[in-house]
Amino acid sequence: MSKSPLTLYLAAPRGFCAGVDRAIKIVEMALEKWGAPVYVRHEIVHNKFVVDGLRDKGAVFVEELDDCPGDRPVIFSAHGVPKAVPAEAARREMVFVDATCPLVSKVHIEAERHHANGLQMVMIGHAGHPETVGTMGQLPEGEVILVETVEDVATLAPRDPGKLAFITQTTLSVDDTAEIVAALQARFPAIVGPHKEDICYATTNRQEAVKAMAPRVDAMLVIGAPNSSNSKRLVEVGRAAGCAYAQLVQRADDIDWRALEGISSVGLTAGASAPEVLVNEVIDAFRARYDVTVEPVETAVERVEFKVPRVLREPA
């Protein structure tokens, strides 16, 4: 039986960003240097396939520092941790490596600089997300107010409306964040913003590729984990940009083929913590069912690389 033709538009950039690449490398190099087990506080990146692969190599994932023995190295995830965590690791004289993405660390430094200048921080982010928890944990209690929506801005009650600054989680929707920033600036004209957008280059680039692709496709699939903020934003951006059917899938097994019946074009992208092997798995699944033509949709070229911490580059 002949297969129906299908054009598969493949977003570029997609998948791993420099911060995720670095974080995974840190765990792998730590295992090489110190042997298994190496403990990792929280999932190193939000992707089950990646986490399971590292677990198989000897990484032990825990939620809190209390779950780690004092005599084994511990790694802090790419999302960043509150200041109290490395402080406690140092107090326990543990060997620890911080895999916080340098672009998240930049937001931490920004928050501390504004705090030192007497400004109270407004953080645009998602409650409970590890990056938000880590960033808010850089400053004393009450110094960072979280806003998630434009509606939240209306009920903000800062200490001094004239002494405010804002920062954002790095994995948000660029367009949604712009609306919240506009609301903050309208209500607090003196509010100080970052020199440059806090939303990271990789999040922005992946969203731009989705916007370029969305009007051309019948359906869009985003490969990523359900707890991955940047992946979920890609689905939302796809829908907002005109693609009626945009879905998040972790693996090829998650694709709802019945929902795709009768389509002739699909857009495919992957969140910043999803490896390329999963993209290929999904393409193969389409090839098994359709006569596939792959069309790249490239909106940017990424050449960013981040060094791993010096402790891992030195011999044991």
Structure description:
The protein has 316 residues and is α/β, with parallel strands linked by helices. It has helices spanning 18-34, 48-57, 84-91, 102-116, 130-136, 150-154, 174-187, 201-213, 229-240, 276-289, 310-313, and strands spanning 4-12, 38-41, 59-62, 74-76, 96-98, 120-124, 144-147, 164-168, 219-223, 246-249, 265-270, 290-298. The strands form three sheets. It has a five-stranded parallel beta sheet with strand order 10-9-11-1-12, with helices on both faces. Strands 3-2-4-5 form a four-stranded parallel beta sheet, sandwiched between helices. Strand 6 (120-124), helix 5 and strand 7 form a beta-alpha-beta unit. Helix 8 (201-213) runs parallel beside helix 9 (229-240). The N and C termini lie far apart (60 Å). The relative contact order is 0.19.
Report the uncertain regions.
Answer: none
- The neighbouring-strand order within the major sheet is 10-9-11-1-12
Q: What share of residues is helical?
A: 25-40%
Structural class: alpha/beta
How many whole angstroms does the radius of gyration measure? 21 Å
How many strands in all? 12
Q: How large a portion of the residues is in β-strands, by DSSP E?
A: 15-25%
Tell me the distance between the termini.
60 Å
The total of helices stands at 11
Order of helices and strands: EHEHEEHEHEHEHEHHEHEEHEH
Instruction: Label the overall shape.
Output: flat
Q: Main β-sheet: number of strands, strand sense, barrel status?
A: 5 strands, parallel
